[in-house]
Design brief:
alpha/beta, Jelly Rolls, 12 helices, globular
Amino acid sequence: MAAGEQSSLPVTYREYEFSQDFPMLLMQGTRISDYVDFIHFHNCIEIALCEKGFMTWNLENTYMQVNAGDFLFLPPFYTHASFFPPQEDANVCCHYFFFDPQEVLAPFYPKGLPEELLWYRYADCPKIFRESDFQEETRLIRLIMETILRKEEYCLQTVSGLLETLLIRFYRWHQENMAETPQKKAAESHPENLRAQLFPAISYLDREYAQEPDIALLAQMCGLSEKQFLTCFRNAFCQTPLQYLRGVRIRKACFCLVSTEDSILSIALETGFHSHSGFDRTFRDIMGCSPQVFRNEKREILKSAPRYAPYKASGEPGVEG
């Protein structure tokens, strides 16, 4: 398909479980293909560097061309797929690097990563980066991949430091692009820009979801008055902070329902609800079924669905399928 063309394909979820000794994975793609009949997403960041040839990428059902030297930064849960279309030069290559910053950088930040290193979770940015415009970032990515392939002493520590530098550079680039200009000021009401401004509050709600929201504290985190904060929040998310928090709690509860044997009441209390009935009512409003029905149905899907693909990442270089 041509660049910019849209399509709709089945979606696969790939879950990566990283080794504690080396919580990252480097893979290599060298296959030419006519087409990919599905898109996928995973629970970690993917950085893909096209080394040779040109590629076709499906980014959330929009086809884009990527050339040698270009790289992609794909946040968790972003749907995509890629392949090398037929071309004269069969010597094609792309490296795919997977990692979770909170796992890789945990030794550096025992109390949790600073919000600046997790900005990509709530602020949108381009997914394709050209080497001519991001030479230093491309150099860092190549150095990370070369370090992993060489497997030298202190490889993990070296790669972790390089990754921290790379994430900080991306954060600074994003902040500079959000700097005050007439164009940016005119676009302040755009939901993506508002979400970036509200990032500290959103990050806090995602971490402290079991607590009751303190609007004054959330507004202070974002440098806004309470009235400004509530207005920005409604414009950015089309809901109040309390409604957003309920959604976060239900998402956390969904994970616990599928991945643990905890009772529904204990999951309700753990995720910030005060009673079984209140949890059940909110769950039905958002998910359209009871917690027990959701648990039963999702467990059957995880047992039988071929489109669910857990990966145990050893950190060894491999081949992307």
